[in-house]
Write a structure and sequence with these properties.
single chain, 19% strand, alpha+beta, 11 helices, elongated
Length: 339
């Protein structure tokens, strides 16, 4: 038995010393110290040893086990240290090199434009109100004086979920919802995403953003409308900006108008940006139709108001001189890094 243990010890130590990887050491541990290993087999054979010799043989087995375990641990530590040194040599870091600046996100041009619009109107005392993108036909059309047979309700222009529910085509429904609450006076803007069945091109998209505005109070006149929007244009595009109102028709306002601003690129002289007209259209507006006030529970004999609608993408395109609306949605990092 003594010769057998010496042979096991010598062979185990020889294999340990010849090992060049941690995986091999683990295999040696299992082969000699595991449940089915060499030393375990010797311990199981003690029953065949004379009773008076068993303590001595058991002690020899334990000494051999301790020696193999010690040599395994020493070799494991040496291999681990060597592997770490090799890793550090491969992954050497030059601490004198400048650090890499982390690239963080920033605001989208639409978000920048919206922040400026909100800042201007909040500074005038307006409240920012948001509403649902999925809207009832009643609020999207009927309470805005758009009857059932109106062309704007054509399925070619509107995304219908069913007869009564649509994807809102404008943020104006929040005007009707706010007026219905009956808390007067009202000074609000409602920004948000809207949907229309348009083909995608440089100036159109089936999903875009609007900012609708509304004020309802006693003695509100067209002069208030013109003064408010003229001040908005100056703050948005520069103090030298002039405005021009052209008659138009919207079902929910009377009278109605579209507002142009003098081209801030050429100063009104005419250029490619303004198509040589000197003017650029930026929004629609008008005095709130008396029938709209009535449908929302407001007495048109006591109260008047005006409303306006701004295309947010149009503001961003004009302010940053972008000639294709699709650039705002393509997420091209080369484009977005410019803002």
């Amino acid at each position: 038995m003594k010769e057998k243990l010496e042979k096991i010890r010598e062979e185990a130590l020889r294999q340990i010393d010849a090992s060049d990887a941690l995986e091999k050491l683990n295999d040696i541990r299992v082969a000699y110290l595991g449940k089915k290993g060499e030393l375990t087999s010797v311990l199981k054979s003690l029953k065949d040893v004379a009773p008076e010799d068993r303590p001595k043989v058991g002690q020899m087995v334990n000494d051999t086990r301790a020696l193999i375990e010690t040599r395994l641990e020493e070799t494991r530590a040496a291999l681990a240290k060597k592997a770490r040194e090799e890793q550090l040599a491969r992954e050497v870091i030059d601490v004198t090199l400048p650090g890499k600046k982390p690239e963080i996100g920033h605001s989208h041009p639409n978000a920048i434009a919206l922040r400026e619009v909100e800042k201007i109107f909040v500074g005038m005392g307006y409240e920012v109100i948001e509403g649902p993108e999925i809207e009832y036909d009643e609020y999207n059309f009927e309470k805005l004086n758009i009857p059932a047979n109106h062309p704007a309700k054509d399925e070619q222009d509107t995304f219908y979920i069913n007869k009564e529910i649509v994807l809102r085509t404008q943020t104006s429904p929040m005007q009707a919802r706010t007026m219905e609450k009956g808390k007067l006076p009202i000074r609000m803007i409602s920004p948000g995403r809207v949907f229309r069945s348009d083909n995608v091109d440089a100036t159109h998209s089936p999903s875009f953003h609007q900012v609708e505005g509304l004020i309802v109070d006693r003695h509100i006149t067209l002069a208030d409308l013109k003064g408010t929007l003229a001040e908005f244009a100056k703050q948005m595009f520069g103090e030298d900006t002039k405005v021009k109102f052209r008659p138009h028709h919207f079902p929910f306002t009377e009278p109605s108008a579209e507002m142009d601003v003098s081209c801030f690129k050429c100063g009104g002289k005419g250029c490619r940006f303004c198509k040589d007209s000197g003017w650029i259209e930026i929004l629609g507006c008008g005095m709130v139709h008396p029938h709209v006030l009535e449908m929302c529970g407001i007495d048109p004999e006591q109260y008047t108001g005006f409303a306006f609608g701004i295309g947010l993408e149009r503001i961003a395109l004009l302010k940053y001189e972008i000639d294709d609306m699709r650039l705002l949605y393509e997420n091209d990092i080369r484009f977005l890094r410019q803002f």
